[in-house]
Amino acid sequence: MAYNQHNYASCSFFTCRHYEYHFIGENKTWKEAQSFCRENYTDLAKVYDMTDMKRLLDSVKNQTEAWIGLYSEPGNKRMWHWSLPGVEYNESEAKWENRDLNDEHRKNCVRMKIRDQKWKTSKCHEEKQFVCYNGENMQLIFLLFCKKNWTEAQRFCREHHTDLVSGDQLEDDKLKQEIADRDEFWIGLFRDTWTWSDGSNFSFRHWDQEPFRDGQGEKNCTFVKTSGEWDTDQCMTKKPFFCYKEKLILIQEHKTWDEALDYCREHHRDLVSITNVHQQRWVQQRAKNASTDYVWLGLRYTCVLDLWFWVNDHLVCYDNWGPGQEPVSCFHSAAMASDGQWVKKADTNTFDFICAV
């Protein structure tokens, strides 16, 4: 997050979300539940992180087993994910050591050797050292005298810190300083065959002690247990379920920023605002489906006060500006590219836009 490009006033934080969860107590098969959610809400529930998980569980008074939107179809290709929500895996940036492709199907977790910083696949039940990431103070936590399997390591990091070390955090110089050359440790990279009902690529998983149930048998649909952890069952089994309703809508009409603002306020609530990385992630999912290269956001620059502000009157406490931005000038507003980065554009450009409903 960079604050040196623009002027900001002091920030006050709020917890508005761009979606809400609904518990449906009627027993249905997974497919029936999916159809019900799509007809009456948005889709079967998807979960972005532990905060979402708590909100999901808080949406029902008496917790019972209930379907969510995660499923696996036989033959699905295993896809790599970072454990930390919001960090996307990029094959071009991977640092794989030579892999044994004949044994790959049984190795779904990844360890890193500090000596050469290469990644190597391993069986997830193996016990190794691990490194956690603490998002509150942006620090790495080294658990070098504690060995756990990958799932236990992930659980420990989430309970006591934020998550297993993921993505760019592996470039931290402290790794070389704190870990001996010959040591290796779990990182937050894993793969599975699971996908969300609405097509989202959210990487968050909250399995019990038997992770990576890759749909090899007949249990290809996911439900939340009474403990709050996830398990799988046959999709024809009937259970209650969770739906989610999104409070965002992508409008595929080319309009100037002012026209987009008027449209959202007339037909919905307002142009979308983004105040944290969680909201950024949800808006970015919508922006990928736009018919224009950019979509308007509800962020505008005021020359009078020399600062950026959201149309819902909240100040800018989070930003995701892309590199190489031109100097700001009057009559500029923020738009989002398909990769999620924000850009400054003249108000007279015409783009698709996202409304909050």
TrEMBL record:
TM annotation in the entry: none
Residues in C-type lectin domain copies: 21-133, 132-244, 243-356
Gene3D superfamilies: Mannose-Binding Protein A, subunit A (3.10.100.10)
Pfam families per UniProt: Lectin_C (PF00059)
Protein name: C-type lectin domain-containing protein
Taxonomic source organism: Seriola lalandi dorsalis
